[in-house]
Amino acid sequence: MTEALARSPQIDHQRATFPDGLALDSGAVIAPLSVAYRSYGKLNAQRSNAILVCHALTGDQYVAEPHPITGKPGWWEAVVGPGKPVDTDRFFVICANVLGGCMGSSGPAEPMPQAAPTPGASRPYGTDFPSITIRDMVRAQKLLVDHLGIPRLLAVVGGSMGGMQVLEWAATYPEMVVAAAPIACAAYHSAQNIAFHEVGRAAIHGDPDWVGGRYWEDGRIPAKGLSVARMVAHITYLSEAALGRKFGRRLRGASALTFLEDVFEVESYLRHQGSTFVTRFDANSYLTITRAMDYFDMASEHGGDLPAAFRGTSTRFLVASFSSDWLFPTEESRALVRALNAAAANTSFVEIATDKGHDAFLLDEPVFHRALGGFLRGAAERVGV
Amino acid sequence: MTEALARSPQIDHQRATFPDGLALDSGAVIAPLSVAYRSYGKLNAQRSNAILVCHALTGDQYVAEPHPITGKPGWWEAVVGPGKPVDTDRFFVICANVLGGCMGSSGPAEPMPQAAPTPGASRPYGTDFPSITIRDMVRAQKLLVDHLGIPRLLAVVGGSMGGMQVLEWAATYPEMVVAAAPIACAAYHSAQNIAFHEVGRAAIHGDPDWVGGRYWEDGRIPAKGLSVARMVAHITYLSEAALGRKFGRRLRGASALTFLEDVFEVESYLRHQGSTFVTRFDANSYLTITRAMDYFDMASEHGGDLPAAFRGTSTRFLVASFSSDWLFPTEESRALVRALNAAAANTSFVEIATDKGHDAFLLDEPVFHRALGGFLRGAAERVGV
C-alpha cells in the first residue's frame, strides 16, 4: 500500500491507498481503494489510545479543524479537541471520509480506474460506483486502522450515520473495540427515514443537470435537485421547537402581503442551507450514501436476531439519544439497548433532554458532553491509558 | 350573477359566477369570480339545515361522489353521506373548490380575463393570479352561500386547511355560523410547516418544465417538481408508525443487494403518490394555496390577540385533534381551545387516540365520527332542525 497527499478535485486530502482494494457486500470490488483521513493528538507508545470518530451523511474527516472548502470550524469541535470530551491531549483521534464520500475517499466523484489507462481520459466513477453498505464503510476504515498500526481502538464514536458505523464496528470487529458510543441513531433505518431520503433522490434524479448521473461530462452539477434534497433533510435534523424558536413566523420584509418569494425567514434560511451545500457535496455521493443508510438493518444481517450481532462481546457501550430527535427517536435507541442487554453487553444509556432535535448531537449539550467524556475516561482507565 | 356549467380544462364543473368579483386581502381584485361547488342532500324550507364542508390543500368539491378525474371515491365519504356523521339525509351539504384551486373555481389554471378579449387568445392566469389568503377563500365561499339563499349555516366543518377556513368563517361571519368544527388544524401555520411547503415550492420552481410559471404556453407540466412536492407533503400526512406498519422495510425485490431504484415498497408507494397527483393538480395552484396556508396566522390578524378573533361569538365549537398528527400537533389545538375559552366561546375539545397521523381525519376513526356526528346533531336540535 502507498500513502500520499493525492489530488482530488480542488483539494489535497491526506489519504491511504490500498492497491488490493476492498470486496463489497454487493460482490463488487473497489480497487485501488483510497481512504482519506485526518488525525488529532498523538498515538502513545502502546498504541492503545486511538479513538475513531465516524461521520454522518454529509460530514467528512475535518472534525476538529477548519473545513478546507467552506472555511468553517470542524463539524465536531464542540466534542473533539484539547480538554473536550474526546480529548486530543489524551487520545489519538482519527476520522476517515466514508467510502462513497466526496472528500478524498473512493467514491463516485473520484477517478474511475481504467483497464488501459489513457492520459487525460480519466473520468469519475459517477453512477458506475457500486452500491455500498454501512458495513462496507467500516471495512474500509478497518484497512486504515490496520495501516496505522493500531491493534485495538480504545473507542469508536459517532452520531447519526456515524452511530450506524459504530454499531457495525462493534458487531464486525468486536475484539478491536474497547468502547463504542452509538449516538442519535438506531439499529435500522425506518420507513419514514427511507421515505425522506427518497424525496431527496427524486429531486436529484429529476434535475436535468443530473444528466442520468453523468453531469461531470460537461462540468454541470444538479444544483437545484441537490439543494432540494438538502432542504428536506435539514428540516428532519431540527425539531419543530428549534425551528419555531429560531425563526417562528418572522417575516423577511415589512409585511406578508408583499407576497414575494422567501416571505419568511425560515425559507431563506433553508434555501441558504441548500445552496451552500451544493458547493461542497457531490450529488452521486449523496445518492450512494443515502442508499447505504436505507439498507442498514443490523437485525436482518443476523437472521432477524439483533442481539446476535453483539452476543459474547466484551465491548462497553454508551447509547445516547436526544428527546426531541424525531429522525432517530429515543424509542429506537431503547430498542437497541434492549438488544444489547439481551446480548449481556455492558451498556449505559442516556436520553438527553433537549428541544434541539437530531442536530443536538453536534451542538452545545453539556449533559451529553459530560456523559461521553466520562464514558471515554472510564474506558481509558480500564485499559490503563 | 350568472350560474352555468362552465368548461374548465377537461371537465364541466358546476359553478356560480360573480361578475363584480372579489377584493382580496392583497388589494387585488378577481373579477369575474367563479366558485365551483357540489351539494348533497336537500335544503329544507327554512333554509336552516345547510352545512358547509371546507376542503384541504389538495382536496376539492367532490366530497361524497366519485372524483371526475381519478374515478376514486369522494375524499370524505367516510364522514359525509346518508347516515354518516355529516348526514346527507338530514342536512344540505355544500363544498366549494377553494379560491386558487384547480377544479373550476377562479385560480391560476382558469382563463385570465382580458381587457380586450380576442377569440382564441385566452390564456390561464398562471403566475399572474394574485396571492390569496385563507380569509379570501372564505369570502369567496360567502358569496356562494349568499347566492344559494342560505342566511345562516348550521355548521362549517373541515380538516387541515379546511379547518383554517372554518376558523376564518367563525371569526369573519360569526352571525352566519351556528356551529364550527375545526379539525386537525391550528390557528397559525408553524415554521416547520412553512419549511416543508418551501421544499415543495423549491422543487416546482427548480423544474425546467415549470418555465417560470408559463408551462401552459406549450402544454408542458412541471411533473417532476410537482411530484417531489407531493412526495414530501405526503410523508407529513402520515405518522412514522403508520408508515412503519404499512411498509416497514419491506423490499420490492428478493434482496436489497440487487441495488435497483425503488428498493423498498415505501419508495414505490411515494413515487406513485407523486406521479398520480400531477394528473389532477395544477402546479401554480399548488404554489398559490401553500402560500395562503403559510400566511395563515389568526392572532396576527387580530393585533396578536387570538381570543379577540372570537370574542362575543355565539358559535359552538368542536375542536378535534389526532394524537399522532405531527403536522398539526394536539398542542396547537389546545392553544386554540385556550383562546376560545378566553373568548368565552362554547367549546368542546377531543383528542382522538390514533397512530394514523394527520390523515386520520380522512380515515375510519369511529371515535372521531361519533364526536362529530353528535356535535352536529346537537347543533341541529339547538336550532330546531
TrEMBL record, chains A, B:
Belongs to the AB hydrolase superfamily. MetX family. The keyword Acyltransferase applies. Keywords: Acyltransferase, Amino-acid biosynthesis, Cytoplasm, Methionine biosynthesis, Transferase. Transfers an acetyl group from acetyl-CoA to L-homoserine, forming acetyl-L-homoserine. Residues 49-363 form the AB hydrolase-1 domain. It catalyses: L-homoserine + acetyl-CoA = O-acetyl-L-homoserine + CoA. Pathway: Amino-acid biosynthesis; L-methionine biosynthesis via de novo pathway; O-acetyl-L-homoserine from L-homoserine: step 1/1. Pfam families: Abhydrolase_1. Substrate binds at R230, D359. Homodimer. InterPro entries: AB_hydrolase_1, HAT_MetX-like. One of its GO terms (molecular function) is homoserine O-acetyltransferase activity. The keyword Acyltransferase applies. This is Homoserine O-acetyltransferase. Its EC number is 2.3.1.31. Transmembrane segments: none annotated. It comes from Falsiroseomonas oleicola. It is found in: Cytoplasm. It is an enzyme of class 2 (transferase). The active site is at S160 (nucleophile), D325, H358. NCBIfam families: homoserO_Ac_trn (TIGR01392), PRK00175.1 (NF001209).
